[in-house]
Specification:
single chain; 4 helices; elongated; binds zinc ion
Length: 178
């Protein structure tokens, strides 16, 4: 899991910051959305970050925010990285009920004493298994092993009959359910 340690509020010049920010960092009372919006960039992130599914942001010794990563790109969201090589996280702010949020947010930081704001730690919450139910682990940011989504669909079609049988059954069931 990726872990980023935030410092106190730091003034920035919105004219020169590619994200247009006037500050970054953390102070007491910031909402999780605020923390995300001003601190998701611009970081020096190596290739290891591309294999991570979640990122935690800590400040003051506690985890303040957990995000599921969807992409790591330039601060304009389109290019691969900014001119100076820095990158910006895109993702979903996790809320109560998500195991990564509930395990970490509001609890002690899993990484302390590291001078570099960017760090990584091993978490059992990183390991996920294929959505077809086969029990095999899947690569980061994937829901199925290759081909297992197709197999799962076709197993269900076969339970109904032919593809035509399935379509008839599906359209009828769908119409009745709405
Ligand atoms: Zn599978």
């Amino acid at each position: 899991m990726l872990h980023i340690t935030l410092g106190p509020i730091n003034q920035l010049d919105p004219e020169t910051c590619p994200m247009g920010r006037s500050y970054n960092g953390w102070r007491e009372g910031m909402s999780e959305e605020q923390i995300y919006n001003i601190n998701r960039g611009r970081w020096v992130l190596g290739e290891r970050a591309d294999r991570e599914r979640y990122v935690l942001f800590s400040a003051g010794g506690q985890v303040r925010l957990a995000v599921e990563i969807s992409a790591i790109r330039a601060s304009n969201g389109r290019d691969e990285r900014d001119d100076d090589g820095r990158r910006t996280l895109q993702g979903t702010v996790l809320t109560c009920g998500h195991p990564v949020h509930d395990t970490h947010v509001g609890h002690n930081s899993p990484v302390t004493g590291n001078r570099n704001p960017i760090s990584y730690f091993d978490s059992p919450l990183d390991s996920r298994t294929c959505g077809c139910g086969c029990g095999e682990p899947v690569p980061v940011r994937r829901d199925f092993l290759a081909g297992h989504d197709q197999r799962a669909i076709h197993e269900r079609i076969a339970k109904v009959g032919s593809v035509t049988d399935f379509l008839v059954w599906f359209d009828k069931t769908w119409a009745e359910a709405r």
